[in-house]
Cytochrome c oxidase subunit 1 (Microcotyle caudata), 264 residues
Amino acid sequence: SFWIVSHICHEISNSSGPLGYSGMVLAMFSIVLLGFIVWAHHMFTVGMDLKSNTFFSAVTALIGIPTGVKVIAWVSMLSSSGLYWSEPVVWWLISFIILFTLGGITGLVLSCSSIDIVLHDSWFVVAHFHYVLSLGSYSGVVISVIWWWPMIVGYSLDNSLLRAHCLISIIGFNLCFAPMHYFGMCGLPRRVCVYDHSFYWLSGLCSAGSFISSFSACFFIFILWDSLTSGNKVVGNWRNEGFAVNSMVWPLTYHTLLHCNVVN
């Protein structure tokens, strides 16, 4: 998802290269390397000594720095370009950046070992990793399909349906997972089927949000089917011609190209 968002933000900005390219690459490698030494933040409740808790808390919080570099670069590339605000892919990019940042903030909260001991195995943790992981993977799939579908298939997608799909998805996602932060802060553990009656109405909202999210996934499949059956062929390309794939005639020919493209 990081690569997809970075690549598409670069294309939309029409710049010669991604903003802070070296910083983006360094941030990516930093996240990968730090990911190898933060495993114990899942084990703050097993009775580790104070030095171990302090080390793994600090390293976990440190991941926020390279992640922040990437978020700032994405926002800068989007804000410095003449955005097509009606484009659904822009809606998805902005939604991804905002919700991913919110999920990252809750991750910083959980990086503190003393707080994590209180919130461990609660619904707060479920809300955190769904905002970061589930949203990131789903948004990455949707954004990539929206962006490359016309090039691969040769038919355009209905922008009105895509905008409606974006709104439905974001509403369903937040309705499903946002209340879980409150559950966790109230001390409600995960993986329980019986809980206090005061949580019933919020649990109903979460269930409604899950149904809305499921509907949005089915709705997206319908949008793809509508694209194939409507017959609206792609006739032009406004994207950054600095990429070899954008200099070709859309849709791409089947199996192979008729001639080699010259890349300077």
Summary: Residues 2-247 form a domain with the Cytochrome C Oxidase; Chain A fold (CATH 1.20.210.10). Residues 123-153 form the longest helix (31 residues).
